[in-house]
Amino acid sequence: MNTAEKVYQDVKALPEPLAQEVLQFVEFLKFKQLNLEKTPNETTIKAMQAAERGEYEAVDLKKQWSDA
């Protein structure tokens, strides 16, 4: 039995409120993983550094990130 199957079997035995908590935790882990995978590209990093120096407006920085 692989890990996903073991989790499934264990969660099936839980009362619904606890199963909901497990689901929320799994969704949190998925969200966390997606955010770790999204890293700024070189252009965005340079724009962020320029913003720190006051050379970029926040709107320009937001556009750089959106375009990445």
Q: What report would you give on this structure?
A:
The protein is an all-alpha fold. The protein has helices at 3-12, 16-37, 42-52, 58-67. It folds into 2 domains: 1-37, no CATH class; 38-68, no CATH class. It contains 4 helices and no strands. The model has no long low-confidence stretch (mean pLDDT 80).
Architecture blueprint of SSEs:
Blueprint: H1 3-12, H2 16-37, H3 42-52, H4 58-67
What percentage of residues falls in helices of 4 or more residues?
Answer: over 70%
- Counting DSSP H or I runs of 4 or more residues, the number of helices is 4
Secondary-structure element sequence?
Answer: HHHH
Structural class: mainly alpha
**Into how many domains do the coordinates divide?**
2
Q: How far do the termini sit from each other?
A: 40 Å
Net shape: elongated
**Percent of sequence in beta strands:** under 5%
Q: Radius of gyration, rounded?
A: 20 Å
Relevant terms:
mainly alpha; 68 residues; 2 domains
Q: Could you write a compact summary of the structure shown?
A:
This protein has 68 residues and is mainly α. It has helices at 3-12, 16-37, 42-52, 58-67. The mean pLDDT is 80.
